[in-house]
Design goal:
alpha/beta; binds 4'-deoxy-4'-aminopyridoxal-5'-phosphate; about 350 residues; 10 helices
Length: about 350
């Protein structure tokens, strides 16, 4: 068996130790005589797995007791609808940041229900920078401010939570939750699909403050899209994504054993410092993002001549470096370096990039 370095934006690499544990427990979890895939979701075995995962996530992020943690389905995109349906009245003003493709998808969905006001806009710099705070415009009457903490496609990341001036702050952390410590009290709601930093696809974490659970959803909101119903049922209103939940729990334990989110942040900085430094100095590769706001998860770059893109990707694959192609909407390359990317993966990528530039520069 030879495992490759997978730079996919998601589903992404998982820690090898986690995969090995899944393999070892696949047929018989903890002497239960069953696979986690076969367990009833309301039985004692799965209840233990689910509660432990929640407890570990709470510990990792120091989640205060006035926040509920939900394990839902439907991915990040379902949250684009659940947020406006549950947290604002029909046609009410909601504020959004527009910092890249994922913000835009969230905005489009919110427009179905609400009046969207763009409060923080990166359109003017083609999504390569965050506007200065003096240019932000957050209306006092907005039901909330939604922003995308890390734009997975543009490689643009907030280095700290925006000041929402008392309005509940809603954060899409689909591609960077668990990559850094957070001050949870700053947020009304945080959501993240799992398939990048947290586990396999099929499950989505939602961290929601109690007072927002009390808001009345838009009347037509289906039961399955109501936060309150999921919270009252401990995320077991319907059959959850049991196996994905279990694997996320193993990833949470792994993060704890590695030194927690502080250590994840240190590693992410080390990985990306090295890569951005090389890209800037190379004269062959280019990253367009303002250096203060470059993503520590998704490093985007272009080659000096886009005619070389195909050769770059083909040769990278031969060297065991997979899925470096940038998102189809922006082109170029993207190296996604989530928590599970080992140091050796970054070293191999750098070596390959150096050799390629030397050959083709
Ligand atoms: N938000 C962000 C920032 C993302 O990167 C993604 C997925 N790439 C999503 C939302 C959508 O997630 P899903 O595909 O699970 O719906």
């Amino acid at each position: 068996m030879s495992r490759k370095f997978n730079f996919s934006a998601g589903p992404a690499m998982l820690p090898e130790e986690v995969l090995q544990q899944v393999q070892a427990e696949l047929l018989d979890w903890n002497s239960s005589g069953m696979s986690v895939m076969e367990m009833p979701h309301r039985g004692d075995f799965f209840e233990g797995i689910a509660n432990q995962a929640e407890q570990d996530l709470r510990e990792l992020l120091k989640i205060p007791s006035n926040y509920k943690v939900l394990f839902l389905q439907g991915g990040g995109r379902t949250q684009f609808a659940m947020v406006p349906m549950n947290l604002a009245k029909e046609a009410e003003c909601v504020a959004y940041s527009n910092t890249g493709t994922w913000s835009q998808f969230a905005i489009e969905e919110a427009k179905r229900y609400n009046t969207v006001h763009i409060a923080i806009d990166s359109e003017g710099n083609n999504y390569t920078n965050l506007p200065d705070k003096s240019e932000w415009n957050i209306p006092d009457n907005a039901a909330y401010l939604h922003y995308t903490d890390n734009e997975t496609i543009q490689g643009l990341e907030f280095s700290q939570a925006p000041d929402s001036r008392g309005i509940p702050l809603i954060s899409d952390m689909s591609s960077n939750l668990l990559s850094k410590p957070l001050e949870i009290n700053q947020y009304g709601l945080i959501y993240a699909c799992a398939q990048k930093n947290l586990g396999p696809s099929g499950i989505t974490m939602v961290i929601i403050r109690d007072d927002l659970l009390a808001r009345e959803p838009i009347v037509s909101t289906p039961s399955m899209l109501r936060y309150k119903i999921h919270a009252e049922n401990n995320s077991l209103y319907n059959t959850p994504a049991c196996f994905a939940w279990y694997v996320c729990g193993l990833v949470f334990k792994w993060v704890k054993n590695q030194g927690g989110v502080e250590e994840m942040a240190r590693r992410a900085k080390a990985r990306t410092d090295e890569l951005y430094h090389y890209i800037d100095a190379s004269g062959f590769y280019n990253n367009p993002v303002n250096s203060a706001h470059r993503s520590k998860m998704n490093v985007v770059f272009t080659l000096k001549d886009e005619k070389l893109d195909g050769t770059f990707l083909k040769n990278a694959e031969k060297a065991g470096l997979m899925n470096l192609k940038g998102h189809r909407s922006v082109g170029g390359m993207r190296a996604s370096l989530y928590n599970s990317m080992p140091k050796a993966g970054v070293a191999a990528l750098l070596q390959f990039m150096r050799e390629f530039a030397a050959q083709h520069g």
